């Protein structure tokens, strides 16, 4: 089946600073189940890209396999997308980033795609500090193959068939922090108010920005006893902060409360304003973040918001000392040492 | 006294690995090379770093036969572990040069060979204090002995030592001294030179002596690869290393230190090919180098690249399989697993270089072909070609050459084109047009996917649309057969018999054709250089009554490809094989052909 989204939009739709309407950031019609959390995340991505005045062709979408990995077709139709193979989005993103350091890379993955088959690639992408946004649409189950438990399902969570998961769930945020990720956030597909500024901030971050977004599977994991259901998540969510993304050159109009506010400058000149709600937690202090996550885990809470941020980050190209000019724009004169040099090389082998 | 054999012998060095013997042995073969005599070396080494037996066979051939030869005229035996085997390897009437620091045990004695003892270790212990020095210079002592025994020009060896220690000048003199220890001992104790020896010729012209992996890495550098992703695996590791070594020299801005390349040692082969595909999708030329086990891991991604039509270059330096097999021995046993890597109807373009100059040329050509055909190109070398020094024509680059980036649309073209469809066969050659991310704000974007899609890259499960795209890929395959390197017709004299081969079987095959002719069996020869097979290959099979198919694997994989793709009658294709991990020899081909010819005559 092919789905074609209607192309008519009201001519008076407002345009952003680069001249695009919000419709210009939309994708094809979603084929996911009605009520799927993933569609809300897609909508948040559209909203974020429109609001940060992104030119759509300056972003590339890359995904693996699974329900979540289908979503790049459902947003940003004017951006190139690559729906690759299961669990291997990070390597494709790494290669793409090596080829052209100037685009924004938005990687979309699921909990199966990242925490099981793709775990190896995920951890190495974090280590290398790729300059990319890595979103996991985390529903604790394999949707596309009809509801098997995934590696992020919490121990004790009950699936639709009624069986209890006996295995430890993997907390991708804790893992990302452990591996040296420089921007780590958790959010909920049902909290657009929080998710949109987080996506904007992630896109401004000059290193690996990881977003673990809990995104309930309405069909296979929304039952009583599941810790990834809409009801459970709403009851246990605990926002660490309120977050505002302040674009470049904008006037700061919010009142900041002494001691509870953090203004984090992002590399492109924009600002991230965090109003802290959690006690004893400092998003720039790795130890306090790990404490927060461990404490929440014991209490059964789900801390959300920006969890960890390190602004002093050196991404893969910085580490490799790659030329500022994208490699994919170089030609013979920049890449080929030429015949005379080869003569010299030949002479060395005589 | 043995009969005189000038410039026509095999010498085997039997060493312990990790003792510095390899560089001394390289020095020996280079000395022969610099004396203008055709020479080839085969390093037979264990999958180990230190302490196990290793052999280095050097064949000196005035006639220019560069394949391995079984019969060994001289053995330099410095490894007690393999002594028995090494002594047994010497041909009757040949020579054993051994370390006589300790007397030779009587059980090793052979009446039919000459024993030349040189107290290598004793000489070193008398002249050097440090154990490591004693070990390293021991190698130079036997080089010194060989200079006199084989009549090698001293100045040539000294010149090589000077070149090698250009950056460590204080090591030059001690090496000279070690050589003299060996020379003087021979002069004082033996008649020299031996009847088996070298004599200056002028047969090497402008040739170079280089390993295939270095040439491959250089070819990728010249061909414009800017992204490299790889995972260490013998025998391919030195391809990526060579690329990096020369990229550091020729792709770094001297002022800023900025690199015009990016190389990542990936976490595994899956990631390595994923990175190559990601980079190529994004418009950079990219390659990876691996061996059989790596290709197995890359198979899923290769299917994606085939179906989604993404350029990728993979160098497969083949080794002995299956499984871990013989990691440090050679084979051509990945033909089928590479040609048809991945699930579903998938097939890949393979290139078969036969010498380092072709490794260079084909690595660069592979990058052009990958862009032109928008598909993976596999450069199929092997351990023998990749890791041994070969006499090769010099590497050549035409400065007027432009990279063929294939059908890539820029922003202006996108504005001009009314109807862009990523998978539309506009030109009728099965190759569609592609766009690179970031090209145009509103035109040319599409989603690349491994699932079925229509000509506009939209997801579809429509049967007709799927079949149409699969058939188009086959059309592209036909186009590929006209673009890949053409076979080399080695001999075409209208004989009824033919011989056909690929890659490193070349030297043994051409020597075998000469040997067969001497025995009254004349045949034509064809070296295939690429898959899919070009029409010349089909014509060659049609024109000959019986065709001997030379290959280095058990399952006749090359023959299977010929039967499978050209529908040649299998009975016509006579398999000639070698798969013991050693490079195939002319003698082995000769023997097998003679057996088969005999059988054919009986059955007629």
Sheet of most strands of chain B? 7 strands, mixed
Would you identify the CATH H-level superfamily of the largest domain in chain B?
Pyruvate-ferredoxin oxidoreductase, PFOR, domain III
Q: State the fourth-level CATH superfamily of chain A.
A: Thiamin diphosphate (ThDP)-binding fold, Pyr/PP domains
Secondary-structure-based class of chain B equals alpha/beta
- How many helical stretches of chain A? 12
Count the domains of chain B.
4
Helix content of chain A: 25-40%
> Looking at CATH, which topology of chain A would you report?
Rossmann fold
Percent range for helical residues of chain B?
25-40%
CATH topology of the largest domain in chain B: Pyruvate-ferredoxin Oxidoreductase, domain 3
- What summary fits the major beta sheet of chain A? 8 strands, mixed
Summed up, the domain count of chain A is 1
The end-to-end distance of chain B, rounded to whole angstroms, is 47 Å
Give an account of the 3D structure.
The complex is a heterodimer of chains A (350) and B (604). Helix content of chain A is 30%, strand content 19%. Chain A has 350 residues and is α/β, with parallel strands linked by helices. Chain A has an 8-stranded mixed sheet with strand order 2-1-3-4-8-7-13-9, with helices on both faces. In chain A, strands 10-12-11 form a 3-stranded antiparallel sheet. The radius of gyration of chain A is 21 Å and the shape is globular. Chain B folds into 4 domains: 5-197, 3-Layer(aba) Sandwich (Pyruvate-ferredoxin Oxidoreductase, domain 3), CATH 3.40.920; 210-392, 3-Layer(aba) Sandwich (Rossmann fold); 411-483, no CATH class; 488-603, Rossmann fold. Chain B is built from 19 helices and 23 strands. A 7-stranded mixed sheet of chain B has the order 11-10-12-13-15-14-21, sandwiched between helices. A 6-stranded mixed sheet of chain B has the order 3-4-2-5-6-7. A 5-stranded mixed sheet of chain B has the order 18-20-19-22-23, with helices on both faces. In chain B, β12 (286-290), α10 (292-308) and β13 (312-318) form a beta-alpha-beta unit. Chains A and B meet through β1, β2, α3, α5 and α11 of A and β9, α7, β11, α9 and α10 of B.
């Amino acid at each position: 089946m092919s789905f074609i989204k209607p192309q008519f939009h009201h001519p008076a739709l407002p345009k952003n600073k680069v001249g695009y309407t919000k419709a210009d950031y939309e994708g094809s019609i979603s084929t996911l189940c009605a009520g799927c959390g993933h569609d809300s995340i897609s909508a948040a991505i559209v909203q974020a890209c429109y609001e940060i005045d992104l030119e759509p062709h300056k972003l590339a979408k890359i995904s693996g396999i699974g329900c979540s990995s289908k979503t790049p077709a459902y947003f940003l139709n004017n951006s190139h997308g690559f729906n690759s193979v299961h669990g291997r989005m990070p390597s494709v993103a790494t290669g793409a980033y090596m080829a052209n350091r100037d685009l924004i890379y938005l990687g979309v993955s699921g909990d199966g795609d990242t925490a099981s088959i793709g775990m190896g690639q995920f951890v190495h992408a974090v280590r290398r500090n790729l300059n990319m946004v890595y979103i996991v649409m985390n529903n604790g189950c394999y949707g596309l193959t009809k509801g098997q438990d995934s590696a992020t399902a919490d121990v004790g969570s009950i699936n639709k068939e009624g069986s209890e998961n006996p295995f430890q769930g993997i907390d991708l945020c804790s893992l990302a922090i452990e591996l040296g990720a420089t921007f780590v956030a958790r959010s909920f597909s049902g909290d657009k108010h929080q998710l949109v500024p987080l996506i904007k901030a992630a896109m401004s971050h000059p290193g690996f920005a990881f977003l673990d977004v809990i995104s309930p599977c309405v069909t296979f994991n929304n039952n009583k006893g599941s810790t990834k259901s809409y009801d459970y998540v709403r009851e246990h969510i605990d926002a660490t902060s309120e977050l505002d993304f302040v674009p470049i050159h904008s006037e700061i109009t919010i009142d900041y409360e002494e001691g509870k506010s953090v203004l984090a400058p992002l590399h492109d000149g924009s600002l991230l304003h965090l109003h802290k709600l959690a006690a004893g937690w400092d998003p720039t202090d790795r130890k306090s973040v790990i404490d927060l996550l461990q404490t929440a885990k014991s209490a059964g809470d789900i801390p959300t918001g920006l969890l960890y941020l390190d602004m002093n980050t050196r991404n893969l190209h910085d580490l490799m000392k790659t030329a500022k000019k994208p490699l994919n724009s170089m030609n013979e004169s920049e890449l080929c040492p030429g015949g005379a040099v080869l003569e010299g090389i030949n002479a060395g082998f005589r | 006294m043995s009969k005189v054999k000038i410039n026509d012998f095999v010498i085997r060095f039997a060493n312990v690995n990790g003792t510095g013997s390899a560089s001394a042995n390289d020095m020996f073969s280079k000395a022969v090379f610099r004396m203008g005599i055709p020479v080839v070396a085969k390093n037979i080494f264990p999958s180990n770093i230190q302490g196990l037996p290793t052999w280095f066979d050097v064949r000196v051939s005035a006639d220019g036969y560069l394949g391995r030869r079984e019969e060994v005229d001289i053995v330099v035996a410095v490894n007690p572990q393999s002594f028995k085997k090494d002594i047994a390897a010497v041909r009757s009437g040949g020579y054993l040069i051994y370390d006589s620091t300790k007397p030779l045990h009587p059980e090793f004695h052979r009446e039919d060979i000459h024993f030349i003892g040189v107290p290598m270790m004793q000489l070193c212990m008398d002249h050097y204090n440090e154990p490591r020095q004693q070990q390293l210079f021991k190698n130079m002592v036997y080089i010194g002995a060989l200079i006199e025994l084989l009549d090698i020009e001293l100045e040539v060896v000294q010149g090589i030592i000077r070149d090698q220690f250009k950056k460590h000048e204080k090591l030059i003199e001690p090496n000279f001294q070690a050589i003299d220890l060996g020379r003087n001992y021979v002069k004082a104790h033996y008649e020299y030179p031996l009847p088996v020896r070298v004599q200056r010729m002028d047969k090497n012209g402008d040739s170079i002596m280089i390993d295939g992996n270095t040439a491959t890495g250089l070819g990728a550098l010249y061909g414009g690869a800017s992204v490299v992703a790889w995972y260490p695996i013998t025998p391919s590791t030195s391809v990526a290393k060579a690329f990096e070594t020369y990229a550091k020299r020729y792709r770094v801005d001297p002022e800023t230190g900025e690199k015009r390349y990016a190389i990542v040692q990936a976490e595994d082969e899956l990631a390595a090919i994923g990175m190559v595909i990601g980079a190529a999708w994004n418009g950079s030329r990219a390659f990876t180098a691996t061996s059989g086990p790596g290709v197995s891991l890359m198979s899923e991604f290769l299917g994606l690249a085939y179906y989604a039509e993404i350029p990728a270059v993979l160098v497969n330096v083949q080794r002995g399989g299956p499984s871990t097999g013989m990691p440090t021995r050679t084979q051509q046993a990945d033909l089928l697993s590479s040609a048809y890597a991945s699930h579903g109807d998938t097939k890949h373009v393979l290139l078969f270089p036969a010498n380092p100059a072709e490794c260079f040329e084909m690595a660069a050509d592979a990058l052009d072909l990958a862009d032109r055909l928008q598909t993976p190109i596999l450069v199929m070398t092997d351990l023998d070609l990749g890791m041994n020094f070969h006499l090769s024509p010099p590497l050549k680059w035409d400065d007027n050459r432009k990279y063929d980036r294939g059908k890539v649309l820029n922003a202006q073209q996108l504005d001009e084109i009314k109807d862009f469809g990523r998978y539309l066969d506009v030109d009728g050659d099965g190759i569609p047009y592609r766009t690179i991310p970031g090209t145009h704000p509103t035109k040319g974007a599409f989603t690349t996917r491994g699932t079925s899609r229509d000509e506009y890259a939209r997801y579809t499960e429509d049967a007709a649309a799927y079949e149409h795209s699969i058939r188009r890929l086959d059309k592209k395959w036909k186009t590929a057969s006209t673009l890949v390197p053409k076979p080399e017709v080695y001999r075409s004299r209208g004989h009824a018999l033919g011989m056909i081969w690929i890659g490193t079987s070349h030297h043994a095959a051409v020597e075998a054709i000469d040997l067969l002719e001497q025995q009254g069996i004349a045949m034509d020869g064809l070296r295939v250089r690429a898959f899919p097979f070009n029409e010349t290959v089909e014509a060659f099979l049609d024109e000959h009554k019986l065709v001997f198919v030379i290959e280095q694997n058990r399952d006749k994989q090359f023959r299977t490809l010929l039967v499978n793709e050209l529908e040649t009658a299998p009975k016509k294709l006579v398999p000639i094989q070698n798969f013991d991990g050693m490079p195939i020899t002319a003698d082995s081909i000769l023997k097998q052909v003679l057996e088969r010819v005999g059988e054919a005559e009986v059955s007629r």
